[in-house]
Amino acid sequence: MTKELIRLSDCKVAFDGDVVLDNINLYINDKEFLTLLGPSGCGKTTTLRIIGGFLKPDSGDVFFDGARINDVPPHKRLVNTIFQKYALFTHLNVFENVAFGLRVARPDDKKIDKHEISHRVIEMLEVVSLKGFEKRDVSSLSGGQQQRVAIARALVNKPKVLLLDEPLGALDMRLRKDMQNELKQIQQSTGITFVYVTHDQEEALAMSDTVVVMEGGVIQQIGTPEDIYNEPKNAFVADFIGESNIVDGIMRSDGVVEIFGRKFKCLDSGFEPMEPVDVVIRPEDIDIVSPGKGKLTGTITGITFRGVMYDIIVDFHGFKWLIQTTDLCQVGTEIGIQIDPDGIHIMKKSRFSGMYGDYSSYSAEYDDIGDAEHEYEPEDEDEA
Fold first, then answer.
1. Could you tell me which of 13, 79, 94, 256 has the fewest CB atoms within 10 Å of its CB?
2. Are 263 and 224 part of one and the same domain?
3. What is the pLDDT of residue 168?
């Protein structure tokens, strides 16, 4: 049974009159890997600082294991933080960097003897795959190894929670992917709650138990990586998490949506008849067929080779779609598309409607951007 460890209740923060966090409510379970995801300025780092005690909310409460901790200073919380800059001590070797927190005496702490310090440091270096590096100069280590030292130093004090503020930002792409796996394994082996901040949606999906998507100081959606990707709540979430074609639709009835004058079967229900909606179709869920067999027909305007597949831009009535396929096509070709019901996701209209989902800027043909007021002749309606 999961146990709640941290709760933020109606927390609000403003700087110079600008609201950075707008009455957010969030709970984090014990032993959970939770990621705060969003663009720069969305409030994710501010949320992390509130949990760590580096910032007090202007209003609202912070609870840790059921106790209110608004006024508890950082050094008295069972929380450690790793930042993008690891701040290792260059005059100390690996062992002493990790041992530093254990040697710092605090008024309310019992002194740890040197044998216990040695045992805990060696144990933690083994956890981060740095056993045998004890005497190494930290400046001689690679970026990934330095990060492991920073993780070991943060974990050796046995915190209940580890806060990580974009710790992989300084690493190259290959090393970032390696360290994603390392961090997830470390979190699972130690059982420590990880609260992770990133703007990289792929990183969030790969590592997390729970993803919290933020924008404008507001939590837009909370869920598992699968839920966030497959069932986005609004156009912002759908666009920020992976690639998405987001088009206007009309919900004809339960299980039937109209796009560009054509009916498509879907799995969604609970909308009002003829309700305007946002329709999300992931690029990998679109099948290319001959024009005569397609529910919609369009013209290919751009192709990009991505190694395992092609990214193809297709113009439908002035709106550019992205399709991902292993089939090689040619620019200028007219194609048809088919979409299975489970490849269509329906969302209610929101303040983000109309802001995302058109891949005109993805193409090199910037002078051919579709007009939002484009008039088109509806095709003959097919029965869904």
1. 256
2. no
3. 82
In a domain, 34, yes or no: yes
Answer for the pair 148, 182: CB distance below 8 angstroms, yes or no. Answer: yes
- Structure token digits, residue 341: 């019901």
In sequence order, what DSSP letters do the residues of 100-112 get, joined into one string? HHHHS--TTSPPP
- Round to whole Å and give the CA distance between 75 and 69: 12
Strand partners, 137: 93
Whole-prediction pTM: 0.86
Integer Cα distance of 65 and 79 in angstroms: 12
Q: What is the CATH number of the domain that holds 99?
A: 3.40.50.300
Closest CA to 154 of 93, 87, 205: 87
Characterize the bridge pairing of strands 344-348 and 256-259: unpaired
Residue 271 pLDDT grade (very low, low, confident, very high; cuts 50, 70, 90)? very high
For residue 292, how many other CB atoms are within 10 A of its CB?
7
Residues 164 and 21 in one domain: yes
What is the pLDDT, as a whole number, of residue 83?
Answer: 79
Look up the CATH number of the domain holding residue 344.
2.40.50.140
In a domain, 235, yes or no: no
Question: Which of 196, 230, 264 lies at the terminal end of a domain, its last residue?
Answer: 230
Pairing relation of β-strands 344-348 and 275-281? antiparallel
Give 111-142 pLDDT, tens digit per residue: 788 899 999 999 999 988 899 999 999 999 98
Report the candidate in 351, 182, 198 with the shortest Cα–Cα distance to residue 278.
Answer: 351
Is residue 241 within 8 A of residue 228, CB to CB? The reply is yes
Query: How far apart are alpha carbons 48 and 11 in whole angstroms?
Result: 12
Residue 309 belongs to what domain range?
244-368
